[in-house]
Amino acid sequence: MDLDAHFARRAREIEPKPMNPDSPTEREYLRRFAARPGVYIGFTTVRGVTCFLEGYDYAARRSGGAGLDGFRDWLLAKHLRRESNFAWSSVIKQIALPDWDFVTDLSPEQELRVLDVLFDLLDQFLAERESAR
Asked: Do residues 36 and 8 lie in contact, with contact meaning Cβ atoms separated by under 8 Å?
């Protein structure tokens, strides 16, 4: 399964709103990333996307932005509905693949499922955070 081709199709379906290239909101920027992650990181894997988002979060917070602050707690409260010691990236896997053993390597289909769930939930989280402001 070609993940980059999948996300190219997804990008055409999303049809992102025009944004100000000098100051996109976090949601706008991350929607663009979600539509074509391979353009930003050169390859599309759960690990690559997670590393990019963790770096984005760190840089945003370091410069005074919100980054992904609250994303893990939101995931636990709204989607997992139980406590977990896992980081947000593993919580996403729990939500996307509830029967996965966390030991076996992800198949290409599972990678695709995790990424689709991640990008959908991240957009929902950012939309809620924007509307609360």
From this structure: yes
Query: Is 35 within 8 Å of 11 (Cβ atoms)?
Result: yes
Judge whether 123 and 17 are in contact, CB under 8 Å: no
Question: In this predicted model, what pLDDT tens digit does every residue of 45-91 receive, in sequence order?
Answer: 999 999 999 999 999 999 999 999 999 999 999 998 888 899 999 99
Q: For the whole prediction, is pTM greater than 0.70?
A: yes
Q: Domain spans of the chain?
A: 3-132
Kindly tell me if the per-residue pLDDT of 18 is higher than 90.
Answer: no
Q: For residues 116 and 61, give the distance between their C-alpha atoms in angstroms, rounded to a whole number.
A: 25
Residue 65 contacts by C-beta under 8 Å, 6 or more apart in sequence? 26
Block residue for tokens 């989607």: 79
